[in-house]
């Protein structure tokens, strides 16, 4: 097991802190340095009664209908670190450690629950209800990393957002608590953050922690105090102050700037972990306007470009951001798992590697290329802003 959960960060900004009646969502996904994330789209679909869906480790019952989703995911697994669906719901996952060790037995992992929540929930609350019902039925457990030598297990936290509200959901095993957010700026990371403001919870949560001797019932119930390993569960809000300083002007660009900030630690670049992909989503509270989702699909947002996606009819797949498929020969599917590591790099990832090497070998050419790419990103942001503000 690695010493700590990877330091990923998720943010949401609601009016009056955000611009133009927009909800702005962002996440940096910190994962093992050499892991590849791909961006994939799955259309809405109807499913036959009794059909199953094969998740990363286990097979579960399929539902009659799944929503269209766009996902950023480690390319070896079924679920996703973060993504959005056609109804303007966004979900991101955080790996957390609690005083209760996470199970090594293969079940659903947090990233499976991200995708399942998006495929089955048309609102943030519906997605939350999907996730906690699946936790109750199937539990969570299994290796979070493509590593055959060790099993890295975590509990899960989620930021679930739609046009009207957000939910912070934190779990330990099948037990959970959630807080509803409708205004201001909120940040979550790889540490528990829920305290005494709990708007929904597992019906047996308090009885369970009493039975474990973790809470005597005499004091206010504080979720993170009860479940955290140490007293550092509130020290994870890097970047929140940067967004709050924007006043009422948090925009897609402001969120991108925060995700690129290495000095604050939001943009992770350490010996073990790297921000391997990022997302920013802009959700107009007016349902007549489309939601816009920006993905990097490549590591290190300070050296990556955010590219826009909008749900439309007949979405065209982009093979350049999809990793090669190995089918049943994939070492992630064979038992024992992860005995080999295939080359999962997609075309955009390889191009990004080339651009990074240019930056390192020829500073002038590298900086010129970066300016060109940032100019293209700016044009994309301006074009999307025009769509979102047009009357």
Verbal overview:
The protein has 391 residues and is α+β, with helices and mostly antiparallel strands. The chain has a single domain, classed as Penicillin V Acylase, Chain A, CATH 3.60.60. The chain is 24% helix and 24% strand. It has eight helices and 18 strands. The protein has helices spanning 110-120, 124-138, 205-211, 223-227, 240-244, 252-259, 347-361, 363-389, and strands spanning 9-13, 22-32, 37-42, 45-46, 52-54, 59-61, 65-66, 69-74, 82-85, 90-96, 155-161, 166-172, 175-181, 185-188, 200-201, 273-284, 292-295, 307-309. An eight-stranded antiparallel beta sheet has the order 3-8-9-10-11-12-13-15, with helices on one face. A hairpin with an 8-residue loop joins strand 1 and strand 2. Helix 1 (110-120) crosses helix 2 (124-138) and helix 7 (347-361) packs across helix 8 (363-389). The protein is globular, with a radius of gyration of 20 Å.
Q: Mean pLDDT score, rounded?
A: 93
Q: State the helix count.
A: 8
Sheet-strand content, in percent, reads 15-25%
CATH architecture: 4-Layer Sandwich
The value of Rg in angstroms is 20 Å
Identify the CATH class: Alpha Beta
* Sequence of strands across the biggest β-sheet: 3-8-9-10-11-12-13-15
* Count of domains: 1
Amount of helix:
10-25%
Which regions are unreliable across 5 or more consecutive residues at pLDDT < 50?
Answer: none
Q: What is the ordering of alpha helices and beta strands? A: EEEEEEEEEEHHEEEEEHHHHEEEHH
**Backbone structural class:** alpha+beta
**Could you give the distance between the termini?**
53 Å
Q: What is the CATH third-level topology name?
A: Penicillin V Acylase, Chain A
CATH superfamily: Penicillin V Acylase, Chain A
Per the principal axes of the C-alpha atoms, what is the gross shape?
globular
Largest sheet: 8 strands, antiparallel
Say how many strands there are: 18
GO molecular function: cysteine-type exopeptidase activity; dipeptidase activity
Pfam family, one: Peptidase_C69
Family: Belongs to the peptidase C69 family. Secernin subfamily.
InterPro entries: Peptidase_C69
């Amino acid at each position: 097991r690695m010493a700590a959960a990877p330091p990923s960060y998720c943010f949401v900004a609601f009016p009056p802190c955000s611009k133009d009646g927009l909800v702005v969502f962002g996440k940096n996904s910190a994962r093992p340095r050499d892991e590849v994330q791909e961006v994939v789209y799955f259309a809405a679909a109807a499913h036959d009664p009794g059909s199953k869906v094969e998740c990363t480790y286990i097979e579960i019952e399929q539902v009659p209908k799944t929503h269209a989703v766009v996902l950023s995911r480690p390319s070896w697994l079924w679920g996703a670190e973060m993504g959005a669906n056609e109804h303007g719901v966004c979900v991101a996952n955080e790996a957390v450690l609690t005083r209760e060790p996470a199970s090594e037995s293969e079940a659903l992992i947090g990233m499976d629950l991200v995708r399942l929540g998006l495929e089955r929930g048309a609102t943030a609350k519906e997605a939350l209800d999907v996730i906690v019902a699946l936790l109750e039925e199937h539990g969570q457990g299994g290796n979070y990393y493509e590593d055959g030598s060790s099993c890295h297990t975590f509990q899960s936290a989620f930021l679930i957002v739609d046009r009207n509200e957000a939910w912070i959901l934190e779990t330990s095993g099948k037990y959970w608590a959630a807080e509803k957010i409708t205004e201001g700026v909120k940040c979550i990371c790889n540490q528990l953050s829920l305290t005494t403001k709990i708007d929904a919870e597992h019906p047996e949560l308090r009885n369970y922690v009493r039975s474990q001797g973790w809470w005597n019932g005499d004091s206010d119930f504080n979720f993170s105090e009860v479940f955290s390993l140490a007293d550092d569960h509130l020290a994870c809000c890097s970047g929140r102050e940067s967004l709050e300083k924007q006043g009422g002007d948090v925009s897609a660009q402001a969120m991108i700037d925060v995700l690129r900030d290495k000095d604050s630690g939001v943009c992770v670049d350490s010996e073990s972990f790297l921000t391997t992909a990022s997302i920013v989503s802009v959700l107009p509270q007016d349902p007549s306007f489309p939601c816009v989702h920006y993905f990097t699909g490549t590591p290190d947002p300070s050296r990556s470009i955010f590219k826009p996606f909008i749900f439309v009819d007949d979405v065209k797949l982009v093979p350049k951001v999809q990793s090669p498929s190995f089918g049943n020969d994939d070492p992630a599917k064979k038992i024992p798992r992860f005995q080999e590591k295939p080359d999962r790099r997609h075309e955009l990832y390889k191009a990004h590697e080339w651009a990074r090497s240019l930056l390192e070998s020829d500073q002038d050419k590298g900086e010129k290329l970066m300016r060109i790419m940032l100019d293209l990103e700016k044009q994309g942001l301006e074009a999307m802003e025009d769509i979102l503000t047009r009357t």
